[in-house]
Write a structure and sequence with these properties.
Length: 109
């Protein structure tokens, strides 16, 4: 699994704009191949926001980004304080190979 993370700064107090943009992008993301989920983070009094989307593969994350990022930039262009920081990471889950019904201790490994 891969994560697409976008950190962005808007004018402080831009929460309504940030909410509107992430609601639109949430709908767009869910239509893209390989979508697994997302979360959004707001530090409104500082004007700092982040979007985190999960994808099946790096290719899916990059393809979705090619569609989503232009929409994002257009939507926030008037309130953007600096260039967004966009990154794609591989997600490592140490519990991925452990069955869900198993009680695991750190000492078991």
């Amino acid at each position: 699994m891969f994560a697409r993370m976008v950190f962005f700064k808007l004018e402080p107090g831009s929460r309504r704009l940030a909410e509107k943009v992430v609601q639109e992008l949430n709908l767009l993301a869910r239509k893209q191949k390989g979508f697994r989920g997302n979360s959004y983070f707001f530090e409104d009094h500082k004007g700092e926001y982040a979007a985190l989307n999960y994808w099946e593969s790096k290719k899916d994350a990059e393809s979705a980004n090619a569609i989503m990022f232009p929409h994002f930039r257009e939507a926030v262009k008037d309130a953007m304080k600096e260039e967004p920081d966009l990154r794609i990471f591989e997600v490592y889950d140490p519990m991925e190979k452990v069955p869900l019904d198993t009680s695991v201790s750190l000492y078991d490994y």
